[in-house]
Amino acid sequence: MQISLSGIAKSFGTTAVLKGVDLTVAAGEFVTLVGPSGCGKSTLLRILAGLERPDGGRVEIDGRDVTAVRPADRNLAMVFQSYALYPHLSVEENMMTPLKLRDLTRLQRLPLVGPLLARQRYRALRRQVRGAAETLKIEDLLSRKPGQLSGGQRQRAALGRAMVRNPVAFLMDEPLSNLDAALRVHMRSELSQLHRRLATTFIYVTHDQAEALTMSDRMAVMMHGAILQLGPPDEIYNSPASVEVARFVGSPAINLLPGEIDGQGRLSVLGRPFSWAPAAERQPLLVGVRPEHMALAPEGSAQFSGFVRHRENLGADLFLHLELSDGNTKVILRCDPAVLAERTQGGAALGTRVGLSIDPQCLHLFGSNGRRLTSAARDLARIA
Amino acid sequence: MQISLSGIAKSFGTTAVLKGVDLTVAAGEFVTLVGPSGCGKSTLLRILAGLERPDGGRVEIDGRDVTAVRPADRNLAMVFQSYALYPHLSVEENMMTPLKLRDLTRLQRLPLVGPLLARQRYRALRRQVRGAAETLKIEDLLSRKPGQLSGGQRQRAALGRAMVRNPVAFLMDEPLSNLDAALRVHMRSELSQLHRRLATTFIYVTHDQAEALTMSDRMAVMMHGAILQLGPPDEIYNSPASVEVARFVGSPAINLLPGEIDGQGRLSVLGRPFSWAPAAERQPLLVGVRPEHMALAPEGSAQFSGFVRHRENLGADLFLHLELSDGNTKVILRCDPAVLAERTQGGAALGTRVGLSIDPQCLHLFGSNGRRLTSAARDLARIA
Amino acid sequence: EDKITIEFAYPYSHLFDVTYQKILPMFEAAHPNIEVQFRATYESYEDGTNTILREAVAGTLPDVTMQGLNRQAILVEKGIAKSLEPFIAEEPDFAREGYHQAMLDLGTFQNRVYGLPFSISLPVGYYNMDLMAKAGLDESNLPTTWAEVVATCEKLREAGVDNPVFWGWNITGNWFLQALMWSQDKPTVMGADFTLDEPQGLTALSTMHDIFRGCEMQNLEWKAALASFSAGEIAMMYWSTSALGAVERAQGDFALKTNEFPGIERAPRGLPAGGNAAMLVSTSEDPAELEAAWTWLKFITSGEGAAEVARTTGYMPPNKAANEIILKDFYTQFPNKETAVRQLPLLREWQAYPGDNGLAVTQVIYDGLEGIVTGEHDDMESLQEDLTEEVQDLLPSGS
Amino acid sequence: MPNSRAHLWFVGPALLLMVLILLLPIGIAFGLSLTDYSLGNTGARFVGLENYERIFTRSTYEKMFGATFRYVFVVVPLTVGLGLGAALLIHSLARFGDLYKTIYFLPVMAALIAMAIVWEFALHPTVGIVNATLERGCGTVLETWNWYAEGCARTFPLWLTDRDYAIWTVSFIGVWQGFGFNMVLYLAGLTSIPRTLYDAAEMDGSRSAWARFRLVTWPMLGPTTVFVVTISLIRSFQVFDTVEAFYPQGGGPSKSVYVMMFAIYEKAIQHNLMGIGAAITVVFLGFVMFLTLVQRWLVERRTHYG
Amino acid sequence: MVDTAVAAPTGSARLPFSAAETLKHVVLILGAVIVLLPFYVMVSYSLKSPAEIMQNQGGPLGSQELFRDDFCVKLGNAPEDCMVRPAIYNYTTAFEKAPLLRYLLNGVIVTVSIFVIQVIVALPCAYALAKLRFWGREAVFGLVLFCLLIPVHAIALPLYIMLAKLGLTNSYAALVIPWTISVFGIFLMRQFFMTVPDDLIDAARMDGMSEYSIIWNVMLPTAIPALLAFGIFSVVAHWNDYFWPRIVVTGSRELFTPPLGLREFKGDADGDNFGPMMATACIIVTPLVVAFLLAQRRFIEGITLTGLK
Ligand SMILES: Nc1ncnc2c1ncn2[C@@H]1O[C@H](COP(=O)(O)OP(=O)(O)OP(=O)(O)O)[C@@H](O)[C@H]1O
Ligand SMILES: Nc1ncnc2c1ncn2[C@@H]1O[C@H](COP(=O)(O)OP(=O)(O)OP(=O)(O)O)[C@@H](O)[C@H]1O
Ligand SMILES: [Mg+2]
Ligand SMILES: [Mg+2]
Hints:
The complex is a heteropentamer, with 2 copies of chain A (384 residues), 1 copy of chain C (399 residues), 1 copy of chain D (306 residues) and 1 copy of chain E (309 residues).
Chain A: E1 3-12, E2 15-25, E3 30-34, H1 41-49, E4 56-61, E5 64-65, E6 76-79, H2 91-103, H3 113-117, H4 119-136, H5 151-163, E7 169-173, H6 181-198, E8 201-206, H7 209-215, E9 218-223, E10 226-231, H8 233-238, H9 243-248, E11 255-261, E12 267-269, E13 272-273, E14 283-289, E15 294-297, E16 304-313, E17 318-324, E18 330-335, H10 337-343, E19 353-358, E20 364-366, H11 377-383
Helix pairs in contact in A: 2-4, 2-5, 4-5
Chain C: E1 4-9, H1 13-30, E2 34-38, H2 45-58, E3 64-68, H3 72-77, H4 85-90, H5 101-106, E4 108-109, E5 112-113, E6 115-121, E7 123-128, H6 129-134, H7 146-158, E8 165-167, H8 175-183, E9 189-190, E10 193-194, H9 199-214, H10 222-230, E11 236-240, H11 244-250, E12 256-259, E13 271-272, E14 274-280, H12 287-301, H13 303-312, H14 320-326, H15 328-333, H16 335-342, E15 347-348, H17 358-374, H18 380-394
Parallel strand pairs in C: 1-2, 1-3, 8-11, 13-15
Antiparallel strand pairs in C: 3-14, 4-5, 6-14, 7-11, 7-12, 9-10
Helix pairs in contact in C: 1-13, 7-9, 9-18, 13-14, 17-18
Chain D: H1 6-32, H2 50-57, H3 59-91, H4 97-109, H5 112-122, H6 129-136, H7 146-153, H8 166-191, H9 195-204, H10 209-220, H11 222-237, H12 241-246, H13 260-270, H14 274-300
Helix pairs in contact in D: 1-14, 2-3, 2-14, 3-8, 3-11, 4-8, 8-11, 9-10, 11-14, 13-14
The structure holds adenosine-5'-triphosphate (2 copies) and magnesium ion (MG) (2 copies).
């Protein structure tokens, strides 16, 4: 079932938080909304859920306009950053709550009398809960209260509460951000697998780009209340539509160097001419190079040189922070620690001067308005 | 000034939290204590600070036994996970507090009268604070209250409070764990640079191995109240002394495969013989391979094969989760997304069967007691 | 047949509960068709009046209420109390029931009877004879004037009694002032005129001043005074007869004697009556119910009903018949209760101050007298002046 | 649900009751304060500001303000101070904290009307347990203290009926009754101070408990203190039960304990002069509101929240 | 000077009773003695005969010698049949003369209904003030703060007149209605609700709960500690209230609340009946003490969470 948001606008007081956002999510898709803090991700999600009413625009689910429909009647399930489990109910009761509210009459919901009156139905509900719990491997925790669970277990219980009712879509607002790093990595793959298994639409909000990159079919990069770019993760990583997107996606962040296209249409970076012409008008540029696309090179064959100012060895990767010879540009480059150790005895000590070369195929060119030059090197290379 | 802990033991109630820990930190060194939650890192640090008294063992600073000395008299500075800034004082006042407590008399500390009585001294203190603030680039924030600062700024203010007094050493208990991912990466390098600039001893507690790996001169891996391995980060990454250390350090975690050394002293992994002999007795083994030391290989030349179960594209890296053909071993391998895209059209789709090869030089062998076999392949390779 | 129910409320449950418990069976035997329902008791006379005023607003008045003698006027002024004249007129031999004129006067306003007194108290002296003996006094020569009292004080103090006297100036604010005024046969208010400005007023104030200073009297609150007296620390205590029960119950191991209230230079010529009177405040239009209320009212204030007052409390019944005929042996048996009866001829009205500010006037006087005890006022003439001015200002003609 | 009208149903009843039960009577009181209404009268005369004029000119009312402020200025600092002190002591205890907590909270729970009578006995000039205990000290070194010697010579003070002592005694009982309440509030405040702040203070070189108190405890208790002081102020301005129980008539020796709330009660209910009673009510409300605003303004700026 | 830093380095080496700890106990015990003094007097008097009370004799528990019950004598019984033990007399009188059981029952009825209604009224209002955005919210909250200042004694008479006009005096309604609105309760609960995460409420909305059931099914159970705190304040205040019941209950004693039981023994100018009075006082305070002991842990926790930190 397709979900579409069109022209969604929302202001709080005088500040416009969303400025006419359009987004269409296909059935079964995993879409991630990513963006810096305060850009309006949560607000957009809450509007979709019906928790907030937009000032303008339409929300459609399966072609039906639900802009004015109550959250309870949209059949969407939401998982919150803080899990929002009812602290006084056991995990089982937590998971049963949405079912009860949907499937039972008011009488049947009564505390003590209800279960006696509708024994059959209760049994059915309990079966449903147990099923979801099995999927999430939390059968053993059903009788515990949220206070007695660890972060990851709470996370799963919250998922369970969302799952039991077979919603049209799952909405998740930074569901992993309260977990510690290792657990976050683990839950990432669990969520992906869950998505594959259930084949339900997931709309996932995060400000952690690693989550967005690894899990989504498509990701939307939001900033200042608008979606800047929407597409599959590798498209966004490899062809960011603007400097802002490029800067936001990728860790460590993309290196941005000043450059220009001269009268002959030739590119130069930091004053150094490059050997090909990106077929654009004469203009100043920002040239983006990801850390993994820079390499140490013997001083002779290097395009740039700089001093090692800091090195971060992550075991598998080594990040060198260089200060280029021009004195005010800093770049980060990634290398394999083993390779580096072999090539430079003891591995580029702090303060040593090293050469640097850039693969021209991997340059991202951004015009003075911050937008990507469509004729950028890499795209050309692809077409070729 | 050298700091040394010897035979530190500590129990809370009946549970022994520290079981005789020895640690010597040289002057100016950056030592990181890393380990899973609850292993006793904070307790050890608090004992060093004097906030907790050990049940047994000695704490020495510069050769002097300070086990029974009050925290205030040890001249150590501590930065807390929650920053522990005094919320009612401005950043400047926060930073001035330790100076005041140390340098001023009771009379001079009086709220209104004090600054009048000791104008000179106050001016000197303020200069000192300003100096530290400049180092940390928070001069503009001096008059703000902690509540008006962002996480990173608070972090720096807390550092500032520690710095002003020129302590013998900085003790830091997970100072970055309350920051978001991007800021954490940034602060990592700032802290390293600070360490280089001040050349003071840093003792740094974290459970985030990325921090430990990137910042420390030496890192100590703690588990269950004991230090399992102490050494420079790359030694720990490349030659983990035990399975536990190997499993803890590295992300994604090291792949562990069952193997054995047969009667002829030949190694086999998952039943597949490898072509060299690690010179050890016949025994079952656990063989560790880091994700970056595995590679996709054409089925023919591959040592193992498996099915792609999940893929995580982080832009710069791509992690493939494979299920090996034996049906119950799962491994993760890292590859370059660009390379992968070129080599396999569309890049190893889910469910496809792929071949896998392992660099035998990069195997880590652990005996049945979990300890590293000292004659492991890589070490041999190095010696050679 | 139909039972008529009437509602009735009275103050001081710990004093009068027992009285009504004894009266009620007798009444029910005599009038089986009337049922009397007791309401929650009033905590005090003030509480009783305030309650009636509130109930008048709420329209939930009882049929018969017992009000402090000096509180009757308010209810009459505000038109809440009903005149009893029509019922008295119906009674063929009302006088024979024993209501004598002095007593009826206590409940008479504008020449119409509104209240029938039920229990009467008068100021008396309580003496700890063991201590008095230290001053060389016995039953036969107890002080009869305030001057003698002050002289006795000195002797007692020499004999080591720190605290020889307690003089109950604070009882309901102005009762003892009226006592000193009536002693000189002077009413405290005449119409809307406060008479404290006359020479008798100054005499009254000076007498108090002499007693307080001459005896170095402590400013005790009643409970504290009672405790001190019971513990045998106070030799002479001047208070209402009504407290006799409480005093006897709590008294320590000494001989207690009550005696007539001393006077100024000579025996008093009059004393204000304390106590309460029954008033008809029923809002019912039903003659049968009013009749029933009257029946009850009459029953408790006359004959056997009234006699129970003396038997069960320190008060005396205002009814001649009850006192003289029924209780003859009773008083010989309990001589301490007889003191008040001996003072009966001195019975005078406990005066109320007219107008809305009546209660505020009492307060002004209370505050003034307190000033004498606490030593705030030493110049009685200026106090006389101040009090007169302030009180006159609050009285209707003054405004 | 921003679009629902739910809040009307939620706030409505409370608002309605607030208006009917609290604001309407205050309105009526304000109206009555301009008249000479007296319960039981059929009508009332409009007298303008005469009632207010009286309040501010008569000496009785001067005493009223005196007594009220004396009470407030004794009771508020002491209940707050003792509440804090007790909370600090109890909080730092390793054990038996619950016991003390319960004991100190007892006076809050006891019916004041009964306790007032008990106090009257305890404070009785001669047989009361207080003076009886003091008397035991006679003949010892304590006699060198002039005040004590005088007490021994005759009696120790008539705590409740001496005009020099009465207001302080009543204040003492107010403190006795109220500090347990503040203690509980402070205990709650103390439990929520993060422990690391004390660690930080320790590391910063605060050696004495007092330094840690100044640096951490007291500032962190700021919001609690604002609340406690506000509540204590309101409560002590509203003191009535003790005064009425001790001095049902007159408001203490020489009106030295004639606090405002008692004045309202005396005028409006005892003397049945609703006009003046209502006028005092209005003045009272004005005072409390003014003080609360001042206190908020003074303290709020220096208080740290969250 | 108080050792507030629990984490002081001496902490772990602390003996059960160090010098400092002992000193604290000394101070606290002294305080406790002063605080308990009137309670000691109360209990002690409830066991004594009138003479012993007045003369301050008989030690802490009274001599328990027989004394004559005047009331019994006045009813016409022979004096020798009316000899009673003080303790027994005081307590039986408390229950017989004042039908104290009935009063206690009334007290329970009144305090419980007051509390329940206060909760029913205050909880939704506090919820709306804390968690809903609507026009006029600040004004309503301002009104709540203003109403906190209004003393009951000042509005007693206008209120009485209003109730009288409705014909409600002398009824349970009269005892309950004026207290149905507790601005303190609204204030306290609002502060608490401010600390409840918005997400929890949104989750309930997503689950299909109406705003109304959110209050009772989500907020109420979460707020139990705060409610307990409020409950103690409310119950203590109304259980002990003497002023208001005295004003509105002028009819039958059937409606008396426990403190009014004291008035049976209050005699003003004519001497009180102190023994039974103190016995009554003891009986009245006992349920509260028990309740406090039971609720104490969560009670303090409740205030801790209400944003008064
Ligand atoms: N109820 C509200 N009232 C006023 N402003 C609000 C409200 N909710 C959100 N905002 C503002 O709207 C902006 C967008 O908020 P939103 O919660 O959607 O951001 P976000 O992208 O989810 O950020 P984060 O990553 O920090 O969760 C923020 O500046 C926030 O301050
Ligand atoms: N004051 C205390 N009382 C009782 N147990 C304690 C106390 N402090 C710590 N512990 C226990 O001691 C163990 C070690 O605690 P510690 O805080 O040193 O762990 P840690 O390594 O710092 O963990 P984390 O990474 O979660 O901070 C834990 O199991 C903890 O529960
Ligand atoms: Mg958000
Ligand atoms: Mg820790």
